[in-house]
Amino acid sequence: MSSPVTDFFDSLRDRVHSAMAEHRKAGKITVQIGSATCEHAAGSLDVLDEFTKHIQSSGSDAIEIHKTGCTGRCSKEPIVGIFVPGQAPVKYERVNRELVHEIFTKHIQKGCPLPEHALDGSLDRQNLGAGQGAKSSVSQKFTEMYGDVSFFTAQNRIAMRNSGVLDPESLEEYIALDGFKALATVLGKNDPQWVINEVLKARLRGRGGGGFLTGKKWELATQNEEKTRYIICNGDEGDPGAFMDRGMLESDPFSVLEGMIIGGYAIGAGKGFWYIRAEYPLAIKRIQNAIDLCTKAGLLGKNIMGSGWDFEMEIRLGAGAFVCGEETALIRSIEGERGQPKVRPPFPTTRGLWGKPTCINNVETFANITAIVNHGGEWFASVGTEESGGTKVFALAGKVKHTGLVEVPLGTPLKDVVFGIGGGVQDDKALKAIQTGGPAGGFIPAAMDNLAVDFGPLSKVGSIMGSGGMIVLSEEDCIVDISKFYLSFTQEESCGKCTPCREGTTRMLEILERITSGAAVLEDLDKLERLGKLCQQTALCGLGRAAPNPVLSSLKHFRDEYVEHIQDKTCRAKKCVAMIHFEINAEACIGCTACVRNCPVNCIAGQRKEAHVIDQSRCVKCGQCFDFCRFNAVERK
Amino acid sequence: MNHQTATTITDNWEAVRAACLEVLPAHIIAFIENNRDMEHSEGQLIAALHMVQAHFGYLAQDTMHAVAQLAQIPLAKVTGVATFYHYFRLQPRGKHMISVCLGTACYVKGADKVAQRLMDELGIHFGETTRDGLFSLDSTRCLGTCGLAPVAMVDNQVYGPLTPTDVSVILAKYVKKEKGTAE
Amino acid sequence: MTKQSINLTIDGTPLQVPAGTTVMKAAERLGIHLPRLCYHPNLSLEGACRVCVVQVKGFNHFMTACSQEVWEGMAVQTNSPEIRQARRDIVELLLDNHPKDCQTCDRDGNCELQRLAYQLGVRERLFEGKKKEFATDESSKSVIRNPSKCILCGRCVRVCAEVQGVGNLSQHGRGFETVVGPANLCNMDDSVCIQCGQCVAVCPTAAFLEQDHTERVWQALAAEKKHVVVQVAPAIRATLGEIFGLPVGTPVTGKLVTALRRLGFDEVFDTNFGADLTIMEEATEFLSRVSKGENLPLLTSCSPGWVSFLEKFYPEMIRFTSTCKSPMQMTSALIKSYYAEKKGLDPKDIAVVAIMPCVAKKFEAGRPEHTMADGTPYTDAVLTTRELGWMIKSYGIDFNVLPDGEFDRPMGISSGAADIFGATGGVMEAALRTAAVKLTGEELGPLEFSEVRGVTGIKEATIKINGMEINIAVSNGLNNAKKLLEAIKSGEKNYHLVEIMACPGGCIMGGGQPYPQVYQDPMDPDISRARAKALYGIDAQKQLRRSHENPAIAHLYAEFLGEPNGEKAHQLLHTTYQARSPRGIR
Ligand SMILES: Cc1cc2nc3c(=O)[nH]c(=O)nc-3n(C[C@H](O)[C@H](O)[C@H](O)COP(=O)(O)O)c2cc1C
Ligand code: SF4
Ligand code: SF4
Ligand code: SF4
Ligand code: SF4
Ligand code: SF4
Ligand code: SF4
Ligand code: SF4
Ligand code: SF4
Ligand code: FES
Ligand code: FES
Ligand code: FES
Fold first, then answer.
1. Best residue in A38, A474, A479, A491 to probe B by mutation, most B CBs within 10 Å?
2. Strand boundaries in A124-169, DSSP class E
3. Are C178 and A545 a contacting pair at CB < 8 A?
4. CB–CB of B64 and C184 under 8 A?
5. Exposed, middle or buried by CB within 10 Å (0-12, 13-18, 19+), for C229?
6. Percent of chain B having pLDDT more than 90?
7. How many other CB atoms sit within 10 Å of the CB of residue C255?
8. Interface check A403 vs B, CB under 8 A
9. Residue A375 in this model has a pLDDT that exceeds 70
10. Average pLDDT of chain A?
11. CATH number of the domain where residue A94 is located
């Protein structure tokens, strides 16, 4: 049936498809270069520059550069893909200027790929067609491009389906990959409740940490007589060590944007705000670009797709306050205030931004919406568990071989992520624990690595799903030290409004400092627990309520390590500086003087080619000698 | 508050505006004035402060005062907001901005030692600037380059994985460059 | 929409309250006063201190009674062992970051934090560690700021912004480093503070205090050569009793006079006298402006908090403002001229002490406009109600057993019109009583103007006198004044006479009034009402009800001043204003 919306969308899509087909006919070789912040940091801009120079000096117009977002392979960046029409794609890892030259001259010009530099060490990529290897048709394009890499095939990419595939600055490419089909469907149906129902069926739970059912939240916002409503995309991503949202904002801005428009339509909002942390300039730029392009294309603004519905968007920047990820604080911040949370209830869905009903959703939550609309809520639900539908993106980091962004169905066992996708613990050390949920989460001891990643199971063992930080800890990590790290983060980020969090986290941190410096007594553990419980029970917002979680969960699972610190004054991971010292084993020392040259306080003495000694009274225990001795002569005791 | 009527503009408005023109660049004045009569214009305070910081590198008292006057927001609120958000700097920043990542991945891989070395070498703490105005030190959370952990960023260049020793080398590089340009 | 009723239980007792009631208010119906530090009935909800936590069946985390609304079937526990421990721990956390100063603290045993600590049974200090330390800011002539004692309840920030519309205060920094203060944490004296002292009145601790003048007064009383004259503002007689445990709204005029005599003051005068005089001057000024039709509305000028606000926020309204000094300054000026002359004293040997409900009066007394030609101030010291209460206690005077005394003459004689100056609308009513007579020329005009009574923030009326319609407005709390001033400026309203009082409720709720007692909230509108009632009661019982009927005033003009608004009156009883910086943002 033809309607203004379908007409609008069909003609838009047809235009894009024919332009794409035209382009394909040209049969150019494509050099694909990652261009997210992480890739830039790893040097992809140099790589881009080098390829550009090579192409220019070769004078060929049959080679083109295609910028994409990131695939989530942090440890392998910069990644470059070479697509020669008719051949299997080849991906290279850790490309630098020198390697560009080799790739260009050998692979592109002579047709000989370089297996030794291929991603994950193998050129052997089948060009998998639809269905094969692809977990769902959603990620088909991704699978086509990246082939059979175990890091990817063990995943199921729904939210990140376009990351690393698309040029994040091209609306055409997005449309070519089913972009705005979902919005067209939704506007065509002209029934906001239908959207809400699909999202409810999908059992999509908010990916920002709370895990509240998105459909339910949307429904709540509509149960209000107030007709001025707002929708907000929470891109504040403040968890240290989490970068999923940045990945998606930079790599697939249009998906998030489309999800947000659909959300706005479902709740009857006239305006949407993006709250993005100022530390993400590239994400901000790409979202602004997406807003501009969509507005120009009639996909945003007045009379969207000819539907008669108006919706506009505005970006607001964060300014370095983790607590502004909390809904009421975020609202205060948009209102131009200090980002201090307000008491709830009333919840934002009743009284939010400027007192109007407001829905706040996470970036990843929105990124799932189009897939749900296009493939149905039931399909989405089938991917996850009984309790929660779909997948979750994790930022896998710490002592794991393959760090990066991974997306797995909810319910996947932890060990599949850490060992399967992550390749296991770095340097083949023993796994100690997996930390999920960042500063609001807790530790899952190695013995429980079969636990399913899902909201319920994680919180049952004293951690949380959180926004998706997943830190692998090995036997070389001190649990007390890491707990202290998290608490020092929340203590520093406490907004200072309420007593238990402002004062309580400070006191807890002082106790932890006493423990790691050997000045604590056993009673301090009771005090920690008492203060922790106080924060959980009485703090005003989620930050304070969750702040003690890492400490309490580590006390629960690793109490003996705390006791060791206090009673024996030892740190089994040899991390806590106050409890270790460095000695040089005279027998092993060959007198190479590497340690002398690297000691910041010059407290190592010895003749060249003779055994050295450390002056303990001056040693600041920085560990440099330990790190630099190639003969394992420096011992940490 | 409703800023629609001209009555919010004070009796000495000419003088106030003239004083603001002296301290703020035209684009910021235009931004504030274009917003002032809009609904919820106070909501643009943080955006205005971002613009000031982008222009001057930090928020000086006179610029915050000018923003307060022009936007007609009490100055106490402006400075209250500016001091709440760690992104805003109240002191001029050094020529080179060093940010050490203290995100989890970096911490687990020894960022604390890197940070300590930086503080030792520069003789400053986070949020401070060296006396010669060359370096400012800050910590950040996750630059998204966890794969290179531990990392630090000098201006826009990311360095990693770092050892404390690398820190000395990198700093020396910048110092040398500065000395070079000085001659 | 009719409000639905909600059934709930509190500590097992069932009760029914209207929907929208908070747990705190519901508990009060059972006579349970939950602890609170950041809650304030007149201010927006903060929910910061967390001492009001209660347990609700079915929930792991506790809820704050000040913010949580009741729901059908809710089961609240206000006093389980867990809750008691949580509250105790919270208060202990506050104390751990607080000077251990109670014995030497200016709150003088009347501190909400200290009281809570005792009441909740904080007997240990388990979590002590680092403490905040800040310098005390004594730059302001009225208000001392001591952030080391601040518990960050945010009441002062809210009262200054929401009630006074000044917005001088904000939290700065965040987390453990948070500190409350003016912009850039500058000195109070360099800030837009208008010295009203409302922050002092609402602060639960000694983080905001008035400048202490008690030592000056002890010194003056002890100095052989000094002739120490005291004057007492109208509002004091309605509130001083609270400090000695009397119910709110107990008038204590007679005991007050006796207590002052016991303290050793040589002469006990009544600021009421100055109030009657103010009416004479102001009514004359008003009638002359009305007849000339210029500079209307006339804005009253007896509230120094408002005068500071005028000069910092609305200098363009100066020409509308009455040039009359405040009753306190009129009285002081006359003591050092008229009275000194009569007594044959050198004004330099006289010390004038004013007992005021007001913190701003300390600033007013120090203004250069209020000094004699040789630079000595007309008013030597200003004591707040609280400071006087403390001096009485400190002296060892058992206030409640004192016999009634009477003010000295002639400056102790006053009309009932003067007594009501202490309540919002009182100055207006007093002025109307006299103006009505002057306009009609009849000796008995209308006496009570109920339309200007009551604690409402803004009151408007049109009074018909002799066929003439006089549009009047009365405001209290400067945020309300702002609304009036904007309406006047935009021409939306045309008033003839406007009374502006800085403090919410007027001087009975001034910044220097007694701190709330156990189970009271500061600035509670109920307290305001009870105190106002006391003043209207005093007025009703007086023979003299109109200022111009005051024989001592008539005598003063005849003997000393000449005509109202005459040359001498102008020189002694009128003042000038000027724009001041920093300019406030409204
Ligand atoms: C201290 C704190 C920080 C938070 N930070 C974030 C964040 O950075 N990003 C985010 O999406 N949600 C964050 N949240 C959760 C949000 O408050 C909110 O629940 C979420 O954005 C809702 O979206 P969702 O329902 O899609 O998950 C944070 C919560 C707290 C208490
Ligand atoms: S819990 Fe912490 S962050 Fe949240 S309101 Fe309280 S002090 Fe602020
Ligand atoms: S630990 Fe550091 S300070 Fe100590 S000897 Fe080794 S290098 Fe020197
Ligand atoms: S680095 Fe090792 S081997 Fe070399 S001098 Fe030092 S301790 Fe000896
Ligand atoms: S403010 Fe209160 S708690 Fe603090 S020292 Fe004074 S009396 Fe004690
Ligand atoms: S009551 Fe206690 S604290 Fe107070 S003076 Fe006596 S012993 Fe000291
Ligand atoms: S005295 Fe009045 S104006 Fe000054 S800070 Fe306190 S409340 Fe604000
Ligand atoms: S100064 Fe007093 S009123 Fe203000 S926040 Fe601190 S304790 Fe509360
Ligand atoms: S209203 Fe009364 S107490 Fe308040 S500032 Fe004015 S004169 Fe003082
Ligand atoms: S690959 Fe982009 S986040 Fe690391
Ligand atoms: S934690 Fe340092 S870059 Fe991610
Ligand atoms: S939180 Fe309820 S009184 Fe402070």
1. A38
2. none
3. no
4. yes
5. buried
6. 59
7. 24
8. yes
9. yes
10. 93
11. 3.40.30.10
Convert the pLDDT of each residue in C132-145 to its tens digit.
999 999 999 999 99
Task: Confirm or reject: Cβ of A151 under 6 Å from ligand 10.
Answer: no
State residue A547's pLDDT score.
97
**Does the beta-carbon distance from C183 to B11 stay under 8 Å?**
no
Is ipTM over 0.90? yes
Our mutation pick for probing the ligand 4 site, out of A593, A608, A610, A615, counting the most ligand atoms within 8 A of Cβ, is: A593
Indicate the length of chain C as a whole number: 586
The ligand with the least distance to the CA atom of C104 is 5
B181 vs B163: which has the higher pLDDT: B163
**CATH classification at residue A597:** 3.30.70.20
**pLDDT score of B9:** 67
The stretches of C223-294 forming alpha helices (DSSP H) are 240-243, 253-263, 271-292
Active site residues per annotation of C: 282, 285, 302, 322, 361, 364, 369, 507
* Chain C nearest-CA residue for A496: C175
Tell which wins on pLDDT, A324 or B2: A324
Evaluate whether C208 touches C200 at the Cβ level (below 8 Å): yes
Whether A599 lines ligand 4, by a CB cut-off of 6 Å, is: no
Minimum distance, in Å, between the CA of residue C34 and any CA atom of chain A: 15
As a whole number of angstroms, the distance between CA A583 and CA A615 comes to: 9
Residue A13 within a domain: no
Domain boundary among A124, A153, A182: A153
- Would you say residue A127 has pLDDT above 50? no
Instruction: For residue range A615-629, list pLDDT tens digits in order.
Output: 999 998 988 899 889
Distance C90 CA to ligand 2 centre (A): 14
Instruction: Calculate how close chain A gets to C9, using CA atoms only, in Å.
Output: 20
DSSP 3-state assignment of C381?
Answer: strand
Among all bound ligands, the one having the nearest atom to the CA of C275 is 9
Confidence of residue C466 (pLDDT cuts 50, 70, 90): confident
- pTM listed for this prediction: 0.94
Judged by a CB distance cut-off of 8 A, whether residue A397 touches chain B is: yes
| Residue C326 per-residue DSSP state | P
Is the Cβ pair C316, B64 closer than 8 Å? Answer: no
Chains that touch C (3 or more CB pairs under 8 A): A, B
Structural domain boundaries of chain B? 6-84, 96-182
Best substitution site from A499, A543, A545, A549 to test ligand 2's pocket, by max atoms within 8 Å of Cβ? Answer: A543
In the block, which residue shows the tokens 């095939």? A153
**Chain A residues in contact with C23 (beta carbon < 8 A):** none
pLDDT score of B5 more than 70: no
Over residues C29-77, the pLDDT tens digits come to 999 999 999 999 989 999 999 999 999 999 999 999 999 999 999 999 9
For residue A492, pLDDT over 80 is answered with: yes
**B2 pLDDT higher than 50:** no
Cross-chain Cβ contact A279/B40 below 8 Å = no
Cα B144 to the center of its chain, rounded Å = 20
Which atom number of ligand 7 is nearest to the Cα of residue C163?
Answer: 7
Q: Are C324 and C215 in contact (CB under 8 A)?
A: no
How confident is the model over A145-152, as a mean pLDDT? 76
Domains of chain C and any CATH numbers = 5-79 (3.10.20.740), 143-210 (3.30.70.20), 215-573 (3.40.50.1780)
Separation between Cα atoms, residue B37 and residue B72, nearest integer Å: 11
- Summarised one tens digit per residue, pLDDT across range B81-106 is 999 999 999 999 899 999 999 888 89
Looking at domain B96-182, which CATH architecture does it have?
3-Layer(aba) Sandwich (3.40)
Please, what's the b/e burial string for C392-420 (b: 16 or more CB within 10 A of its CB; e: otherwise)? beeeebebeebeebebbebbbbbbbbbbb
pLDDT at B4: 40
Distance from CA of A544 to the nearest CA of C (A): 11
- So what's the pLDDT on residue A125? 54
C-alpha to C-alpha distance for A336 and A330, rounded to whole angstroms? 10
A-contacting residues in B 6-65 (Cβ below 8 Å): 40, 42-47, 49-50
3-class DSSP state for residue A351?
coil
